[in-house]
Amino acid sequence: MHIATITPERHAEFLDLVDAEIRPDRAKTHAWDDFPLILSPANAAWTLAATAPDGRLAGGIACLIREYSTTSGKVPVAGVGSVVTHPEYRGRGVSTALQNALLTRLRGKNVPLAVLWTDRPEIYAGRGFAPAGWERHVDLAEADLPTELPAGFVARPFAPGDADAVAALYDRHSLRTIRAPGDAATLYTMPGTRGLVAAGEGGGAVAAVFCGKGADFPGYVTEWSGPVGLVVPLLAAARARGWAQHVLVPPGAEQILQPLGRCGAGWGTVPSGCWAILAPDGLGRYLQAAGAGAPRDMGDPVAVLGGVDDEGQPVAGALTLAVWGFDSV
To answer: Residue 62 carries which DSSP code?
Structure first.
């Protein structure tokens, strides 16, 4: 089995394999619609293909590297996704070989953290991935949300021309992915994603909520930005349209919890992903520079990033970061 950076000629074949093997049956979009950044040909340098001895594509894997704004400054993180094996080559160690090859490359580029999302974390435990971090999922189904925006504001659908204004609102979140130029416009206009904005007297967007991510995150507000007093009525409007009954609240965005709680919303806390510490020493230098204490075991994702205790409460680690829904891969 030969593993190498995917060629332009093979990239479309890889996309078709991802689309065929890991898309949910309900999907009305394609994989490249819901994950346009990681699956873009522009990200081919971080896409690996496994080629069988007969020359056929046996599998592939990709990652998207972005800096995250964390409590210890800007830290590079690799989001790993689209790990796929052709049905005819399953059981031959293709996925394991692809994961090992990708993680080796990442360590060589001094990327200290990697994250992936899976409902079977045990598959990736051998490569050091473990559920860690936390985020809150708020249930809006029974909440008595205010439906009227304050005077002077109106709700309207997101339009592509709002992308820059909404990206600026997103950038006010202290903990977030630092998106590359063009990322925001691509993410906000994904097929199957619907957005609402609160517009002020000049017509510009001053708050926003986005629902879903194509077939990923159905029924969820995956990102929201702007003053909470404007966001909450937008959540009510999204719920009334049948777009979402849940809202994602990552660390650093807890200011919305109290007003939602007063409206009768409830929430649970879950890990933010399956994380791996690829470069403990390198990550330790970020902590040291920020004046944060390092845990005894810098290779333990929970010790570094925190987690969720047995009572469902978040437990802080040495470093806190946030993954908004659009940035999962």
So the answer is: E
